[in-house]
Amino acid sequence: MLDLGPGVGALVLHTGAELHGKEIEISLGGSDHERSHKQVHDRRVGDRPLYAAVFDRLPAGEYTLWVDGRPLRREVAVAGAVVTDISIQEEHE
Question: What is the CA radius of gyration of the chain?
Fold first, then answer.
C-alpha cells in the first residue's frame, strides 16, 4: 500500500538485475545534500523477476536520483496523488 494524496505522490523506479540490493538515493531538486534512500529489490511478477525501488510519501516536485553518490537522472517529476513509474535500466547498463 502506498501513501498518496493531494500534494503527495510515489515513484516506482525499475532497474536491471545489476542494481539488485543497491541503495538508490533521491533528493528534491535544489537540495542535493538532503537525500533519502531505498534499496532495489527483486519483486516477482508471475515467474519472472522485476527489479525496482519504491519511494512513497514524496511531496510533489522534481527530484534527482543518485547511484554511488553520482546523479543518475535529474528532473524526475512526481505529482501528488499519482504513482510515477520510470525505468533507468537502459541508463545504467
Answer: 13
How many distinct helices (H) and strands (E) make up the chain? 1, 8
Condensed to tens digits (0 to 9), the pLDDT of residues 1-26 reads: 788 999 999 999 999 999 999 999 99
Cα–Cα distance list, 85 to 33, 69, 78, 91 (Å): 24, 22, 9, 15
> How far is 52 from 11, CA to CA, in rounded Å?
10
Is there a contact between 59 and 49 (Cβ–Cβ < 8 Å)? Answer: no
The sign of the dihedral angle between the CA atoms of 91, 51, 11, 63 is: negative
Residue type at 73 in one-letter notation: R
State the cell numbers at 5: 494524496
* Distance (Å, whole) CA 23 – CA 50: 16
